[in-house]
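Help! Submission page says 'invalid entity' but I think these are all valid:
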Amino acid sequence: MEKLIKIIDKSIDSYMDIDGVYQAKIFEAMRYSLFTGGKRLRPIFMIKTYEIFSKDINNVLPFATAIEMIHTYSLIHDDLPSMDNDQFRRGKPTNHMVYGEAMSILAGDGLLNLAFEIMSKSIEYDNEDNGEYKRKIRAIQEISKNSGVQGMIGGQVVDLLGNHENMNRDKLKFMYKAKTAGLFQASVVAGAILGGAKEEEIEILRNFSLDLGLLYQIQDDLMDAEEDRKINKLTFLTYYGVEHTELKVLELTKKVFDSLDQLKNRNIDSLKEVTKLLVKREK
Amino acid sequence: MEKLIKIIDKSIDSYMDIDGVYQAKIFEAMRYSLFTGGKRLRPIFMIKTYEIFSKDINNVLPFATAIEMIHTYSLIHDDLPSMDNDQFRRGKPTNHMVYGEAMSILAGDGLLNLAFEIMSKSIEYDNEDNGEYKRKIRAIQEISKNSGVQGMIGGQVVDLLGNHENMNRDKLKFMYKAKTAGLFQASVVAGAILGGAKEEEIEILRNFSLDLGLLYQIQDDLMDAEEDRKINKLTFLTYYGVEHTELKVLELTKKVFDSLDQLKNRNIDSLKEVTKLLVKREK
């Protein structure tokens, strides 16, 4: 796992190494947030899924790098004063505390744009067979949908406008599915597509990733319970109460591993292992 | 021209028509800025360039729509309080004045993401010949580079950090090339690529679009001279003075039409016509 994180970090770093250019400051700002202790969960899940079906990691690495950039941009923008107004993340000052609001907005924009730049540039249309770049295009389509207004951003909007009065079950479900689970889904499904999984395997992994994303967010709610109560934040926990929430965690945990077990003809040991680590995580 | 603008507007509108979803507010906010009197210059130049080489406008329309979304997101974010703090644009309240800062940030993010979603989705890899989707991939690569940290966003960073003390000729040149000319270049070059232009034609049109973008921005400076002086804004005009700037306008105007005349074996009447309109524009 440490070896894999090093490979991911090196890949991210390779796009940030632009010294001497006039706009060097934005690279500094982007790099700052890319390297403040992120766990690289999304790229790890993408690569581990990919490796079930294919071996050459170079085909998935640009996409794994891109998904971490998309995740990072969303955190930078989320932390802004007009959004969550967070001054610290992972124990360090947030991007806008260090670089100012304007640069933070641009750094977020820059990372989102760079993600698509990296993914599209990874397609070398003259040196690849048909199947190879079809898979890459499909992966970009999958990621863009899940990170956009129908996915992560859509979930953030509902989160932004939501309160205890205007929320309902379906809306809350959409918010959770879109917001956190969106990028988990994008990561796992893109990994499966790029690896060359069969259609039915892709759908199994889609269900797996959605449940995993939900589980991850609900665990977060349980860990942040006290703080969320203070700021009157609407979460799955505050909406349904602790008993129902803990039952949901058990249910999702079961579903996650049941999904994996449906891929019985494949070697899923490694993906199962990282899933176990995620499910049992401590704060 | 009016007919073409209607086609572009209809295409933009087709992506905004999502009633009844939980995140409807962001579609409202995106639509607000997409339809506040933009001149659709970038899509028009993309389509007019495309039409020199190909006739079926449906292949270029998603890209023309995407470039207008990228342009619009950049205006929404530019206008934010921590950036230019503009309260009005084209005589109407800016996005954040209507929808608040948080929603404006998300609306900008949403439009940037949607642009790449639309472009990548336009590739129907099962129904197109090889050349068709190669061209589309290359167009995405061209647009993403010019809208990103090496292009428009990079130029915005230099603009944000620049002042009369720390500026120099090369830096100013980079800023102008990247900021406004970046998206003009992306529009024209993507149009040429999608249309199937030859490599040497693409390069002629690249030079044309860069000069045109510079010209457009410098004309803006001349028109906004009084206001820029008030806020002590650094522009080509305030850096070089009015005489040098007016000479530059003449020089660029000549270069723009000289470039077009190099495409002598093609019918460039229509592109020349919109170029003339742009060059002679009044505020």
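Support: the input was valid. A stray whitespace character was the problem, and the output above is from the cleaned input. The beta strands of chain B are 88-89, 92-93.
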